[in-house]
Amino acid sequence: MTPQPNPQAGAAVKAADRAHVFHSWSAQELIDPLAVAGAEGSYFWDYEGKRYLDFTSGLVFTNIGYQHPKVVAAIQEQAATLSTFAPAFAVEARSEAARLIAERTPGDLDKIFFTNGGAEAVENATRMARLHTGRPKVLSAYRSYHGATSTAINLTGDPRRWANDNGAAGVVRFWAPFLYRSPFHSDSESQECERALTHLEDTIAFEGPGTIAALILETIPGTAGIMTPPAGYLAGVREICDRYGIVFILDEVMAGFGRTGKWFAADHFDVTPDLMTFAKGVNSGYVPLGGVAISAEIAETFAKRPYPGGLTYSGHPLACAAAVATINVMEEEGIVDQAAAVGETVIGPGLRELAERHPSIGDVRGTGVFWALELVKSRETREPLVPYNAAGEANAPMAAFGAAAKARGLWPFINMNRTHVVPPCNVTEAEAKEGLAVLDEALSVADEHTV
After folding, report:
1. SS3 label, residue 34
2. Residue (of 110, 147, 113) closest to 128 by Cα position
3. H or E stretch including 9?
4. What's the rounded Cα separation, in Å, for the pair 142 and 333?
5. Comparing C-alpha atoms, which of 276, 307, 321 is closest to residue 94?
């Protein structure tokens, strides 16, 4: 689709937004949202006709890109057939979506509880774990993000929690492995794994194993930095949880449905959790949908005991029809394999080549279409390019980098001192190379702030 400039329409959209829309995570008078006129595939464009290659996939959810015709058609067909229905009934789109998801989840995660998004999925997974065990506490990691509902935000380990933290949510935090900024002063992946597991077991011992209902981890943390866990870590966590009767929850809201080059990131580690949360890529974000995949043991807890939770729009037919179409499209078009291939042959090698030329790149990490560049002032000291949770003038170097990328037609994902490379899972080789070329130019701006 060729963007057609229409500045007058754009001005009207912008005016209405400024007058009436209250934006999340923002000081309302300090933001200037771009008015978007349309999107297709890996691109979107504004009302001036300027087109952007989207290296954010929305908020890391358009796994099949924008406006895939088969998914759009499925939503239209479902709307014409049965646009909505209460969750207590068996509905074809809902049943088929659950079947297709259960076929792809690891192990015996064969029961699907649908929610409207990832935060509600985490909320309900935590509730299930507490009811299943009769215990109050939940362990979660620093450098994590689990959502913005009450329980989910208290489980979160990044600064968005601070203003929402009620200090009474029964959450205990621990350090997960991250060799580049190791909290354990490790000098190898194997040492980082060993020390992180020892730290976790010590935390459990001092908290009292009998008080801990669940442990939640993002399989590969997303917004917090795309830190792939070292070999053996998740298997070690699984063993510890089994030993103490702790429910193991994996949060796959961002990493799931092809993003890492597997259907789920857990498939890279041959680990099956007791509960797995999902959302985002399940239907490429076309209609809000999330859920919890539930093991047989936990499902049995509620076989004759009512589960005390639900949502009006649980398993909404339009959202489920979009999920069915998305999963089928991903199979038919080989999108999961495509994500793996473009990550291995284009994005990974390309980012490592950029690191050879740009002193601002301290670390390159990722898999599939799930990558992060850690930007630093000095490779020797690893001092971040901007301070932790920087804002205003303190964040100027990252803001300048972002502006340089946007000026050249690339919309980057920026969080703190990192830029994440997270295009759609079906990004083409040519599109990936186009984005890398823009990053190459924009990183020269970041280089100006190195020492």
Report:
1. coil
2. 113
3. helix 7-20
4. 37
5. 321
pTM: 0.97
Which tops the pLDDT comparison, 169 or 259?
259
Cα Rg, the chain, nearest whole Å: 22
| Long-range residue pairs from 97-100, CB within 8 A, at least 24 positions apart, any chain | 97/315, 97/320, 97/321, 97/323, 97/324, 97/327, 98/315, 98/320, 100/323, 100/324, 100/327, 100/328
Which CA distances in Å does 160 have to 143, 155, 296, 422, 436? 11, 11, 34, 21, 30
Tokens found for residue 26: 């923002």
pLDDT of residue 166: 83
pLDDT for 289? 98
Output the CA torsion sign for 280, 284, 285, 290: negative
Q: How confident is the model over 387-405, as a mean pLDDT?
A: 96
**308 SS3 class:** coil
**What distance in Å separates the CA atoms of residue 224 and residue 74, rounded to the nearest whole number?**
34
Locate 33 and state its tokens.
Answer: 């949202």
Model pLDDT for residues 72-129, shown as the tens digit of each residue: 999 999 999 999 999 999 999 999 999 999 999 999 999 999 999 999 999 999 999 9
95-to-2, 29, 168, 327, 428 alpha-carbon distances in Å: 38, 45, 38, 14, 33
d(CA 414, CA 372): 10
Mean pLDDT, rounded, for 132-156:
96
Q: Residue 3: pLDDT band by 50, 70, 90 thresholds?
A: confident
Pairing of strands 247-251, 275-278: parallel
CB neighbours (10 Å) of residue 331? Answer: 13
